[in-house]
Amino acid sequence: MTEYIQSKFKTTRIVDGKLRKVIVDIFGGIINKNPTKDELKELKPYIGNFWNYVKNLPAKEKKEYLLGFIRYFHFKEKRVPTCYDFTNNLKYPSFNIYINVFGSWNDAIREAGLNLFRNCTDEELLDYPIKFYEENGKPPTERDFNNNPKYPNSGLYLRRFGWQKALKIIGLGVDSMVRRGIIDTNQQKGRLGELFVIDHFEEIGAIDKAGENCKNSYDGICPKGYNYDVKTSKYHGLWDFHLTNINIDEIEWFYLLAFNSDYTELLYAWRAPAIDFIEDIEKGRRLQIGINSDWKRNLENMKEYLITERIKPIFERWLTNIKNQDNSKESIVKNAREKIFKVHMIKDNMTDILRRRYELMMGFIETLSSEDDPAKLCISNNWY
């Protein structure tokens, strides 16, 4: 824990009915009623914790003054403060003040010397998303780890692994959750259909352009080289496929997967050229397929695009796999920590391999210093 050195300031207060110079702490509480001139000499005037008082300080002094509140909180509460501790709390400067001065809450925490994560090993970093899952019953998002001193900033994961890759390593990524039948978020619901299409192409190969790259403008490239996009919808009197996040000029085919209301049954799957729907897309950026003929797009006129029988066996296998898995929180956490252990073992093995290679190379270099023919030495030492 960072050592806390109490901040002291000078100000005037009424003490025993008289106006006196006193020494106060960072909150304005009197800590010395009768200071000497020497004690007052080195102290700065007390300015309070409101932005109107703080903003006119020189930049360096302003930072140090604000950091004093963070350090005090850490000293007093025995934990790193979150941004919520400094929100609507009259005792401390507003969280927004720190954003204005430092750029982000976590940057302020780091400058206060309370960054507890910068020396974390890869294995330690990977364990924090698991802890989040244990506490919240869902994988974390980048937002969950930003401005939250309880966890490392997502930027640290981006630099070490990539956010989605870090979750994938420990089995908490979107694909892992969907494969387990956990489809609570919109991202998981959308990825469900994408995985079925990828599995449909599995034997002949396709390029998955979604997955870790969730912001790509289309989902994949099929074996014949055309760009495709997958949309899923559950039934609410019709199937509604939103197309607001795509670039229609880049997409040649749509895969549309229609489920029942709780995703336990695949009712229809359609494969259609995007050009056939260009009018619908330009009007409302959505495709709507209804049950009866009142809808321009309905089950009858969509028959030419049906591929339900191709996708349904893949869906049925998914359901079977879900039934055979233990999806309890305890099982998912145990599985995630086992994956971290495997990462640790692989790193240890790689370290041994590199060390042995280094030793061999150094031995080879020493041998080359002799008067023997280098070419013969390469052959005799198997360096070829």
Provide an overview of this structure.
The protein is elongated. α6 (122-136) runs antiparallel to α14 (329-368) and α11 crosses α13. Residues 368-384 have low confidence and may be disordered. It starts with 8 loop residues before the first strand and ends with a helix. The protein has helices at 37-41, 51-54, 59-77, 95-102, 105-111, 122-136, 142-145, 154-160, 163-169, 174-179, 186-200, 278-284, 308-323, 329-368, 374-380; strands at residues 9-15, 18-24, 30-32, 44-45, 207-208, 220-221, 227-234, 238-242, 253-259, 266-273, 286-290. The strands form three sheets. Strands 5-6-7-9-10 form a five-stranded mixed beta sheet. Strands 3-2-1-4 form a four-stranded mixed beta sheet, with no helix packed on it. A two-stranded antiparallel ribbon has the order 8-11. The longest helix is centred in the C-terminal third of the chain and has 40 residues, at 329-368. The protein has 15 helices and eleven strands. The chain is an alpha+beta fold and 384 residues long. The chain has four domains: 9-111, no CATH class; 122-172, no CATH class; 186-324, Trna Endonuclease, Chain: A, domain 1; 355-384.
